[in-house]
Write a structure and sequence with these properties.
alpha/beta; Rossmann fold; 29% helix
Length: 224
Protein backbone atom coordinates (compact mmCIF):
# COMPACT_ATOMS: atom_id res chain seq x y z
CA UNK A 1 0.00 0.00 0.00
CA UNK A 2 1.03 3.59 -0.49
CA UNK A 3 0.57 6.65 1.71
CA UNK A 4 -0.21 10.09 0.34
CA UNK A 5 0.58 13.08 2.55
CA UNK A 6 -1.35 16.23 1.68
CA UNK A 7 -1.41 19.68 3.23
CA UNK A 8 -4.92 21.11 3.61
CA UNK A 9 -5.60 24.76 4.44
CA UNK A 10 -8.97 25.80 5.86
CA UNK A 11 -10.01 29.34 4.90
CA UNK A 12 -12.95 31.63 5.43
CA UNK A 13 -14.59 34.52 7.23
CA UNK A 14 -14.42 34.76 11.02
CA UNK A 15 -17.09 32.80 12.86
CA UNK A 16 -18.22 30.54 10.01
CA UNK A 17 -17.25 27.40 11.94
CA UNK A 18 -13.90 26.45 10.41
CA UNK A 19 -12.40 25.24 13.68
CA UNK A 20 -15.65 23.55 14.75
CA UNK A 21 -15.78 21.65 11.47
CA UNK A 22 -12.20 20.41 11.78
CA UNK A 23 -12.58 19.47 15.45
CA UNK A 24 -15.88 17.69 14.74
CA UNK A 25 -14.09 15.48 12.23
CA UNK A 26 -10.75 15.00 13.96
CA UNK A 27 -11.99 14.68 17.55
CA UNK A 28 -15.69 13.93 17.00
CA UNK A 29 -16.61 16.70 19.43
CA UNK A 30 -18.31 20.09 19.34
CA UNK A 31 -18.29 23.14 21.57
CA UNK A 32 -20.19 26.39 21.21
CA UNK A 33 -17.43 28.19 23.11
CA UNK A 34 -14.38 27.85 20.87
CA UNK A 35 -11.85 30.67 21.15
CA UNK A 36 -11.22 32.40 17.80
CA UNK A 37 -8.10 31.06 16.11
CA UNK A 38 -5.02 33.28 16.26
CA UNK A 39 -2.64 32.65 13.36
CA UNK A 40 -3.42 28.98 12.71
CA UNK A 41 -3.98 25.62 14.39
CA UNK A 42 -2.56 22.35 13.10
CA UNK A 43 -4.33 18.99 13.09
CA UNK A 44 -3.44 15.66 11.49
CA UNK A 45 -5.48 12.60 10.60
CA UNK A 46 -5.52 9.59 8.29
CA UNK A 47 -8.13 8.08 5.99
CA UNK A 48 -7.97 4.71 4.23
CA UNK A 49 -9.50 4.83 0.76
CA UNK A 50 -9.23 1.99 -1.76
CA UNK A 51 -6.08 0.57 -0.11
CA UNK A 52 -4.43 4.00 -0.10
CA UNK A 53 -3.72 5.77 3.17
CA UNK A 54 -4.27 9.51 2.89
CA UNK A 55 -2.67 11.56 5.64
CA UNK A 56 -4.19 15.03 5.92
CA UNK A 57 -2.16 17.80 7.52
CA UNK A 58 -4.83 20.37 8.27
CA UNK A 59 -4.00 24.03 8.82
CA UNK A 60 -7.01 25.83 10.29
CA UNK A 61 -6.35 29.52 9.62
CA UNK A 62 -7.69 32.60 11.41
CA UNK A 63 -10.54 34.44 9.71
CA UNK A 64 -10.16 37.72 11.56
CA UNK A 65 -9.15 40.67 9.40
CA UNK A 66 -6.20 41.56 11.62
CA UNK A 67 -4.62 38.15 10.92
CA UNK A 68 -5.38 38.05 7.20
CA UNK A 69 -1.92 39.32 6.26
CA UNK A 70 -0.47 36.22 7.94
CA UNK A 71 -2.54 33.77 5.90
CA UNK A 72 -0.20 33.46 2.88
CA UNK A 73 2.55 31.93 5.00
CA UNK A 74 0.25 28.98 5.69
CA UNK A 75 -0.59 28.47 1.99
CA UNK A 76 2.93 27.41 1.03
CA UNK A 77 2.99 23.90 -0.49
CA UNK A 78 -0.74 23.41 0.12
CA UNK A 79 -2.34 20.55 -1.82
CA UNK A 80 -5.97 21.23 -0.94
CA UNK A 81 -8.16 23.96 0.49
CA UNK A 82 -11.49 24.04 2.26
CA UNK A 83 -13.16 27.41 1.72
CA UNK A 84 -15.85 27.64 4.39
CA UNK A 85 -18.80 30.02 4.65
CA UNK A 86 -21.89 30.29 6.84
CA UNK A 87 -25.07 29.70 4.82
CA UNK A 88 -26.90 32.13 7.14
CA UNK A 89 -24.41 34.96 6.56
CA UNK A 90 -24.28 36.40 3.04
CA UNK A 91 -21.14 38.39 3.80
CA UNK A 92 -19.18 35.21 4.53
CA UNK A 93 -20.12 33.83 1.10
CA UNK A 94 -19.16 37.01 -0.73
CA UNK A 95 -15.82 37.20 1.06
CA UNK A 96 -14.76 33.82 -0.36
CA UNK A 97 -13.68 35.42 -3.62
CA UNK A 98 -10.96 37.30 -1.77
CA UNK A 99 -9.74 34.16 -0.01
CA UNK A 100 -9.66 32.20 -3.27
CA UNK A 101 -7.84 34.98 -5.13
CA UNK A 102 -5.20 35.18 -2.41
CA UNK A 103 -4.84 31.40 -2.33
CA UNK A 104 -4.24 31.17 -6.08
CA UNK A 105 -1.76 34.04 -5.90
CA UNK A 106 0.33 32.06 -3.43
CA UNK A 107 0.02 28.47 -4.70
CA UNK A 108 1.32 27.54 -8.15
CA UNK A 109 0.75 23.78 -8.10
CA UNK A 110 -2.60 22.11 -8.85
CA UNK A 111 -4.89 21.93 -5.82
CA UNK A 112 -8.03 20.19 -4.63
CA UNK A 113 -10.66 22.82 -3.78
CA UNK A 114 -13.81 22.27 -1.76
CA UNK A 115 -16.36 24.97 -0.92
CA UNK A 116 -18.18 24.20 2.33
CA UNK A 117 -21.48 25.76 3.39
CA UNK A 118 -21.54 25.30 7.16
CA UNK A 119 -24.45 25.55 9.64
CA UNK A 120 -26.87 23.57 7.48
CA UNK A 121 -28.89 22.95 10.66
CA UNK A 122 -29.95 26.62 10.37
CA UNK A 123 -31.23 26.26 6.81
CA UNK A 124 -34.45 28.12 7.65
CA UNK A 125 -32.28 31.24 8.10
CA UNK A 126 -30.38 30.66 4.87
CA UNK A 127 -29.05 33.76 3.09
CA UNK A 128 -27.19 31.87 0.36
CA UNK A 129 -29.09 29.73 -2.10
CA UNK A 130 -27.65 26.24 -2.51
CA UNK A 131 -27.71 26.46 -6.32
CA UNK A 132 -25.80 29.75 -6.20
CA UNK A 133 -23.15 28.18 -3.99
CA UNK A 134 -22.86 25.17 -6.31
CA UNK A 135 -22.43 27.48 -9.31
CA UNK A 136 -19.70 29.44 -7.55
CA UNK A 137 -17.88 26.24 -6.59
CA UNK A 138 -17.98 25.05 -10.20
CA UNK A 139 -16.63 28.40 -11.40
CA UNK A 140 -13.43 27.95 -9.37
CA UNK A 141 -13.06 24.22 -10.06
CA UNK A 142 -14.24 23.17 -6.61
CA UNK A 143 -16.70 20.64 -5.25
CA UNK A 144 -19.48 21.79 -2.93
CA UNK A 145 -20.78 20.39 0.34
CA UNK A 146 -23.11 21.62 3.06
CA UNK A 147 -22.61 20.43 6.60
CA UNK A 148 -23.43 21.03 10.24
CA UNK A 149 -20.50 20.81 12.63
CA UNK A 150 -22.94 21.07 15.54
CA UNK A 151 -25.01 18.05 14.51
CA UNK A 152 -22.22 16.15 12.71
CA UNK A 153 -24.10 16.16 9.42
CA UNK A 154 -22.06 15.92 6.24
CA UNK A 155 -18.72 16.69 7.87
CA UNK A 156 -17.21 13.30 7.09
CA UNK A 157 -18.17 13.67 3.43
CA UNK A 158 -16.15 16.89 3.22
CA UNK A 159 -12.89 15.29 4.31
CA UNK A 160 -13.56 12.11 2.34
CA UNK A 161 -14.04 14.26 -0.76
CA UNK A 162 -10.73 16.05 -0.14
CA UNK A 163 -8.88 12.76 0.36
CA UNK A 164 -10.33 11.29 -2.84
CA UNK A 165 -9.45 14.50 -4.64
CA UNK A 166 -5.82 14.12 -3.56
CA UNK A 167 -5.78 10.57 -4.92
CA UNK A 168 -7.13 11.85 -8.26
CA UNK A 169 -4.58 14.67 -8.22
CA UNK A 170 -1.80 12.14 -7.82
CA UNK A 171 -3.03 10.15 -10.81
CA UNK A 172 -3.96 13.02 -13.12
CA UNK A 173 -1.24 15.62 -12.62
CA UNK A 174 2.51 15.36 -13.03
CA UNK A 175 3.30 18.71 -11.42
CA UNK A 176 1.68 18.14 -8.03
CA UNK A 177 3.80 18.42 -4.90
CA UNK A 178 2.16 15.61 -2.94
CA UNK A 179 4.42 13.41 -0.86
CA UNK A 180 4.00 9.70 -1.57
CA UNK A 181 5.53 6.88 0.49
CA UNK A 182 5.34 3.13 0.83
CA UNK A 183 3.07 2.61 3.81
CA UNK A 184 5.47 0.20 5.49
CA UNK A 185 8.12 2.93 5.65
CA UNK A 186 5.92 5.89 6.54
CA UNK A 187 6.37 5.80 10.31
CA UNK A 188 10.17 5.80 10.09
CA UNK A 189 10.15 8.55 7.50
CA UNK A 190 7.84 10.75 9.55
CA UNK A 191 9.75 10.14 12.78
CA UNK A 192 12.95 11.37 11.14
CA UNK A 193 11.39 14.18 9.13
CA UNK A 194 12.23 17.82 9.81
CA UNK A 195 9.05 18.91 8.07
CA UNK A 196 5.61 19.53 9.55
CA UNK A 197 4.25 16.00 9.20
CA UNK A 198 5.78 14.74 12.43
CA UNK A 199 3.47 12.16 13.98
CA UNK A 200 -0.03 10.92 14.69
CA UNK A 201 0.01 10.46 18.44
CA UNK A 202 -3.55 11.24 19.41
CA UNK A 203 -2.37 13.91 21.85
CA UNK A 204 -1.36 17.55 21.75
CA UNK A 205 2.18 18.21 20.57
CA UNK A 206 4.26 21.28 20.03
CA UNK A 207 5.57 21.63 16.50
CA UNK A 208 8.81 23.62 16.29
CA UNK A 209 7.98 26.37 13.82
CA UNK A 210 9.11 29.94 13.37
CA UNK A 211 5.46 30.98 13.55
CA UNK A 212 4.97 29.77 17.11
CA UNK A 213 4.67 33.33 18.33
CA UNK A 214 1.49 33.85 16.33
CA UNK A 215 -0.01 30.37 16.27
CA UNK A 216 -2.98 29.68 18.49
CA UNK A 217 -2.23 25.99 18.76
CA UNK A 218 -0.25 23.45 16.78
CA UNK A 219 -2.36 20.45 17.62
CA UNK A 220 -1.72 17.00 16.22
CA UNK A 221 -4.75 14.76 16.57
CA UNK A 222 -5.52 11.26 15.38
CA UNK A 223 -8.95 10.96 13.83
CA UNK A 224 -8.89 7.41 12.50
Amino acid sequence: MKTIVGKVVVLGHQGVGKTSTVIRYVENSFSQHITPTVGASFFSCKLLIDDITVKLQIWDTAGQERFKAMAPMFYRNANAALIVFDITLRQSFESMQGWVFELKQNVDNPMVLCVVGNKSDLAKNRQVNRDEAIQYAKSIGATYHECSAMHDQGVGLVFDDVARGLIRLLGNSSDHNLKVYDSENIDNIMANSSELEATDTGKEETVNLSINSIAHGNTVKKCC
